[in-house]
Amino acid sequence: MNLTTPALLFPAISLLLLAYTNRFLVLAQLIRHLHSQHRDNLPDVVVRQIDNLRIRITLMRRMQTMGVSSFLLCALSMFLVFIDMIEIAQYIFGLSILLLVISLLLSLYEILISTKAIEIELEMVEQDLQKRL
After folding, report:
1. Could you report the per-residue pLDDT of 29-87, keeping only the tens digit for each?
2. What is the C-alpha separation between 131 and 95, in angstroms, rounded?
């Protein structure tokens, strides 16, 4: 293992964290929208949407924690290679990759949950249409 091995992971982790941040901002915007739209009256659909958002926020926090930890361990691995502690660097790099995989799996689960949120949103649209008819 040389210095370029963990360095290859740097851009991927950086882009992943950027994507997670964008998803978090979208969640925050959706929560603010729900709050402003339904301050006094919370229909069942909105309560279900809020529950879904809580789960997604928890997953997002864990995804970001795993991603940042992966990034830090990758940097530590590079430092260990730099000071010729190759064997320890390999273990640290392996742990970095494991945390990255966990982060990606959490991301996949959050994506699956987000489709459920879209289905709940569609229910709200259907309810509005039924009221108008």
Report:
1. 777 776 666 666 667 667 777 888 889 889 989 998 998 999 899 999 989 999 999 99
2. 54
Q: Which two tokens stand for residue 4?
A: 């370029």
The pTM is what? 0.71
User: What's the Cα-to-Cα distance from 131 to each of 17, 57, 95, 125, 128, rounded to whole Å?
Assistant: 42, 32, 54, 10, 5
- Domain residue spans of the chain: 4-132
Three-state SS annotation for the chain: CCCHHHHCHHHHHHHHHHHHHHHHHHHHHHHHHHHHHCCCCCCHHHHHHHHHHHHHHHHHHHHHHHHHHHHHHHHHHHHHHHCCCHHHHHHHHHHHHHHHHHHHHHHHHHHHHHHHHHHHHHHHHHHHHHHHC
At a CB cut-off of 8 Å and minimum separation 6, what does 125 contact? none
CA dist 11 and 74 (Å) reads: 11
For 2-36, write each residue's pLDDT tens digit.
767 777 776 777 778 788 878 777 777 777 776 66
